[in-house]
Amino acid sequence: MTDATTPDDFHTFHDRTFYDRTAEFVATLLPAAWAALGPALSRALDGLDTSTGPVVDVGAGSGESTAALARALPDAEILAVEPHPALRTALVARIAGDADLAGRVTVLGTDVLSAALPERISGLVAMNVIGHLPPGERRALWGILAAKLHAGGLAVLNLYPPTRPESVPAAAMGEVTLGRRGYTGTAAAEPAGEEAVTWHMTYRTTEDGRLVDEFTASDLWYVFTPERLAAELAGHGLRVTAGDSAHGLQLITR
Fold first, then answer.
1. What DSSP character marks residue 26?
2. Contacts of 252 (CB under 8 A, 6+ apart)
3. pLDDT tens for each residue of 121-133
4. Is 28-161+225-253 in CATH node 3.40.50.1820?
């Protein structure tokens, strides 16, 4: 869509190409959320021994989680896993522009189930990502953790509402101004069967108060409760405790 496009031309993008269209908004709007999530993650990882293997950043996106990990664990080697080319481009650019990240972070351009991970990892982080995995793939990830997570290691993920298939009214995701243009987003969800919701994200670009671009991108998200998480993990010999409740952090150990 170009600046000449009118609201009549606005259209919907489905989950198959979700990040093709939304990557620039993810990179623009997400840092504000990480202003609070980053410190919460850092507290969860405090004291983690990273000498036993690298820390895996699942769905590293444009690099907010990777940078937060690097700050929290200044001696850790990090494997940043990001399958989407657009997000991975932003991730690589961020790493290349930071000498500390460039010396410690390796980017793996695949999904976590296909990634060539080492025999032992000291930690794994999956922020804002676990709902992308269908139940079978999610359980496969627990199998990887059970096999590779060091005995003293820690995995951290977050569960945010909804944890059951239910509607979520539209809410603002943030607003950022870059030069003459403003970038905003809203998100709403509706049930999609017994185990998922469909998120509808509407993104708008304005210039000098004039709407120049708007679209809605839809993404399927698998939902589950903390109780189901605990039961699935127990089947792989893993335990979970609740972390920072404001961010839905879940702390997984062997």
1. H
2. 145, 149, 154, 155, 156, 157, 233, 238, 239, 240
3. 999 999 999 999 9
4. no
